[in-house]
Structure formats: structure tokens, C-alpha cells
Design a protein that fits this description.
Blueprint (H helix, E strand, L loop, with lengths): L1 H7 L9 H11 L4 E2 L22 E2 L4 H14 L3 E4 L16 E4 L15 E5 L4 H5 L5 E2 L12 H6 L7 H4 L6 E7 L5 E4 L12 H5 L8 E8 L1 E2 L5 E7 L2 H14 L3 E8 H10 L12 E7 L4 H9 L4 E4 L2 H12 L1 H4 L7 E6 L5 H13 L6 E7 L4 E7 L7 H12 L24 H14 L13
Parallel strand pairs: 2-4, 3-4
Antiparallel strand pairs: 1-2, 5-9, 6-10, 7-8, 7-9, 11-13, 11-14, 12-13, 12-16, 15-17, 16-17
Helix pairs in contact: 2-3, 8-10, 13-14
The chain binds D-malate and zinc ion.
Length: about 450
């Protein structure tokens, strides 16, 4: 796909009209208006697969500045790609065709936690880790591996899921209020933090997962959860995928304080062991691994019963828990040690999970016999991350076979990362004509001139 996206990039790089350039620089100030080499960190994604270019990166520091920037770009008909921490994995934050980059990282105010309401107000550029650390008694319900760089705005715009969806739901479920700016500069604000509020359309819920196509999120009021005390992590070795899935399903029923149920296989672990200081978690060999975290008074006993006599590492202290989590949380790096990966984040119904997990490598090899395939993910959500390091041209063949396989099993081509640019060609596998025409109508209502993130979610 690298070749595909590179050819999609305009060859003649037109600068911004001089008047718009002056206007944008005046709005954000010269030091927050970047051009040329200063834009380098904003035009390539974390995996290195998506490369674009931009005539300018603008970094507003207030909602009023975001509003003025969008109004100016909209009036000039100049497209804009909103960008948070640039941790996306599907090219959704990269200016593939010379769009202006609207970086929200300058909106970094985090208010004190409202401990009665168990909520906090954070501007779009605040990292998820800062929100999680905002109060010793409370935690952000959503936890993702890239939380130190990923921002509130980006996590809402992509409806980030991650490691605790089974307990708390994705980012959409944490929104208690939202402020966002429409393409023409109008500010929408609904920040009261009311738990119950049936006064019309739930546009904050609609903006979650809209991938920057409807409006630019500037701040949010976010639900917090009491910080779990005394949680226990168990990493269990399991001999095959059917046993792994069976154990994960049992964990949901039998472990009352279950927070996370994650899996990886020896394919990814062996790469991490070869390229990082991580040591094998236990001596006994296992083909697959189930990582469970649970809290509450029965956590240790219930996890112990589940693990029975399988090889298991258990962690009770914060540092030991973090050590075990590294085996799962460093998996996104594994494929990167081998090359530039294609990242898939598919989901399938529970009854198809074992079949999909057992067949997906063969499906990839049917079009690229020497591709390397690593799977891991959020097992009880039915969500498998299939990381492919292609040996053949990444010309769409991998997406074709993986997404058709997923669709044939009743699954989704995007469980968490979004459609972005990576999957835009395959949206018809996931959504009907009627759904896509509704999407186009919604998009036109929010952004009639079509300036917001034009490369993602096809119109
Ligand atoms: C994860 O679950 O680790 C993230 O979604 C990132 C990835 O897919 O690599
Ligand atoms: Zn994930």
C-alpha cells in the first residue's frame, strides 16, 4: 500500500495562497505556523507506512483560534487534516494530498478533577496518560498502549478502545460533554457533564469515531472511574487457540472483577525476546498466551482456579503488573522490528474467533507466501490485531483477502483504529449503500464544502 499512497500524493506541491498564509500565521502567531522542514514530524505516521506533505502546520492554542483557522480555510476552500498525538495506525491523521495540518497539541489545559461527579474537563491536546494521572483516587476508564502520546481529541475522534473495553466500553462511553468546531468556524459546546440529558441528537456520540470528518474536537468532559486497588495480573500459557479462546470466555463468566483479557502468540513474543530486553515469562513453552487483569477481593483466587495447572506468571505489585503487561503492550512494536507493517484491527463474532485466528495467516500467505504475520489483541471483544509485514508489493492484496475473510465470517474490518486511508477502498464490505449514503448526508450537513479530513471514510 505504500506505493498506492505515494502515488496518491500530488507531485506539484502548491503553496498556500499568500493571503491565507498571512491570515493563518496572524491567527496562531509565527512560531505556531510551521512550513518546510519544520513540518517533517507531522507528515509521516508512527508505522512509517503513510507519508504525505503539507504547505503548513498550524498549532492553535485556544478554541477561538481553532475557529478562526477553520473559518479561514473553509472560506478559501483549503482542506484540513486535524491531528492529535499522531499515534493513529490507518493514516487518518496524515496530510496525504497536501492538506493543511491542524495540530491540536497546543490545547493542553487539564482542569482539576470534579470528584463528586467523577469527571474531568480536558482540552483536545491533553494526553490520555495525563488524564489517567489527574487524581490519585480516579482513573481514565480507557487504557491504550499509546496513552503517553495519544490525545483526548484523537482518542474521541477515533473512538479508541484498547485494553479495558470489556469492563468500561470505548472512548464514546466516557464522554460526558464535548466542545467542537465546525468546518465553517462555528463552535458547538455541550459541556454540563449531565449523565442524563435527552434534549435532541447525541452529536458528541456521533463525533466519536468520525475520524475528524465532521468537526474538530477542542475539549471534552470525561467520565472517570475509581482507581482499582489491589489488582492482580496473570499471564497464562495455553497450548492452542481453541484452548485460549475457551479460557478467555470462561474468564468473563468466572472472574468477577475482570478488567482485561488480552492475547498474543509465540510469533510476536519471539520477536520481542530477540529485539528487546524482555526475558521469557516462564520456562515452559506455550504457543499462545492469555493475559488477564482482575481487581477485587476474589481476584487472586478466581484467576488461580482459571489458570489451574497451566504455566502462569502472577503479579500483585504495581511494578510486577507493569512488567507482565509489557509482554502485551509492546506487541505493536514487534512487527516494526521486521519491517513496515500493515496494521489490521478486525473483529469477528465469538463463535468464529478460533476459525479466524487459525486461518488468517494462511489467508495472507495465499497472496504473499513470505509475508510475516503476528496476531494479538483484545480476545473477549473478538478483536484481533493482524500485523502483516509484506514481502510482496503492498498494493491492496493483503487488505483484499483479510477483509473479505472477515466479512465472510460476519466480522468488522475495523474494530478500533477506524477506516482511515488504509481501509477506505473496502468500506463497502462493512456498510451498505443505504448506510454510506446516510454517512455522506451527515458529512455534508456538518461540512458542506468538504474540507475536513478528505482522505478518510470515503464520501
Ligand atoms: C493495541 O491493541 O496494541 C493497539 O490497538 C495498537 C495495535 O494495534 O498495534
Ligand atoms: Zn488494540
Amino acid at each position: 500500500m505504500r506505493a498506492h499512497f505515494k502515488t496518491a500524493v500530488r507531485t506539484s506541491r502548491s503553496p498556500l495562497p499568500l493571503t491565507l498564509r498571512r491570515e493563518l500565521a496572524d491567527i496562531v502567531g509565527g512560531s505556531n505556523f510551521l512550513t518546510g522542514d519544520a513540518t517533517a514530524g507531522y507528515v509521516v505516521d508512527w508505522t512509517g507506512r503513510f507519508h504525505g506533505w503539507t504547505p503548513a502546520v498550524v498549532r492553535p492554542g485556544t478554541t477561538a483560534q481553532v475557529s478562526a483557522v477553520l473559518a479561514a480555510c473553509n472560506a478559501a476552500g483549503v482542506p484540513v487534516v486535524p491531528q492529535g498525538g499522531n499515534t493513529g495506525l490507518v493514516g487518518g491523521g496524515i496530510p496525504l494530498n497536501g492538506e493543511v495540518v491542524l495540530s491540536l497539541t497546543g490545547l493542553d489545559r487539564l482542569d482539576p478533577v470534579d470528584t463528586d461527579a467523577m469527571q474531568v474537563t480536558a482540552q483536545a491536546g491533553v494526553s490520555l496518560q495525563r488524564v489517567a494521572d489527574a487524581h490519585p483516587g480516579f482513573d481514565l476508564p480507557v487504557r491504550i498502549a499509546s496513552r503517553h502520546s495519544a490525545t483526548v481529541g484523537g482518542a474521541i475522534a477515533t473512538n479508541a478502545g484498547g485494553l479495558r473495553v470489556l469492563r468500561h466500553g470505548p472512548m464514546r462511553a466516557q464522554i460526558r460533554g464535548l466542545e467542537a468546531v465546525l468546518a465553517d468556524g462555528r463552535v458547538l459546546s455541550h459541556m454540563a457533564g449531565l449523565v442524563k440529558d435527552n434534549t435532541g441528537y447525541d452529536y458528541p456520540g456521533l463525533l466519536a469515531g468520525s475520524e475528524g470528518t465532521l468537526a474538530v474536537i477542542t475539549q471534552a468532559r470525561i467520565r472517570l472511574t475509581p482507581r482499582s486497588e489491589n489488582s492482580v495480573v496473570a499471564l497464562i500459557g495455553v497450548s492452542d487457540l481453541a484452548g485460549l479462546h475457551g479460557l478467555a470466555v470462561r474468564s468473563v463468566r468466572e472472574v468477577t472483577g475482570l478488567e482485561s483479557a488480552e492475547f498474543f502468540t509465540t510469533a510476536g513474543l519471539d520477536i520481542l525476546l530477540a529485539h528487546t530486553p524482555l526475558a521469557r515469562p516462564f520456562r515452559e513453552p506455550a504457543k499462545t498466551y492469555l493475559l488477564l487483569e482482575a481487581s477485587g477481593p476474589h481476584a487472586m483466587e478466581q484467576l488461580g482456579e482459571l489458570a489451574a495447572d497451566r504455566p502462569t506468571a502472577v503479579a500483585e505489585t504495581a511494578s510486577d503488573r507493569a512488567r507482565l503487561w509489557q509482554y502485551r503492550e509492546r506487541h505493536p512494536e514487534a512487527a516494526g522490528f521486521l519491517g513496515t507493517p500493515l496494521k489490521f484491527d478486525v473483529s469477528v463474532p465469538s463463535g468464529q474467533w478460533v476459525h479466524f485466528a487459525s486461518t488468517v495467516t494462511g489467508v495472507v500467505h495465499s497472496v504473499d507466501p513470505y509475508a510475516q504475520v503476528i496476531t494479538y489483541g483484545h480476545i473477549v471483544d473478538g478483536n484481533i490485531h493482524v500485523n502483516v509485514v509484506p514481502a510482496a508489493d503492498a498494493d491492496g492484496r493483503h487488505q483484499d483477502v483479510v477483509f473479505n475473510h472477515v466479512a465472510s465470517l460476519g466480522g468488522s474490518i475495523s474494530a478500533e483504529h477506524g477506516i482511515g486511508a488504509l481501509k477506505a477502498r473496502w468500506i463497502s464490505l462493512a456498510r451498505t449503500d443505504a448506510e454510506r449514503s446516510l454517512f455522506a448526508g451527515i458529512r455534508a450537513a456538518f461540512d458542506p464544502r468538504g474540507i475536513l479530513n478528505p482522505n478518510v471514510l470515503p464520501r
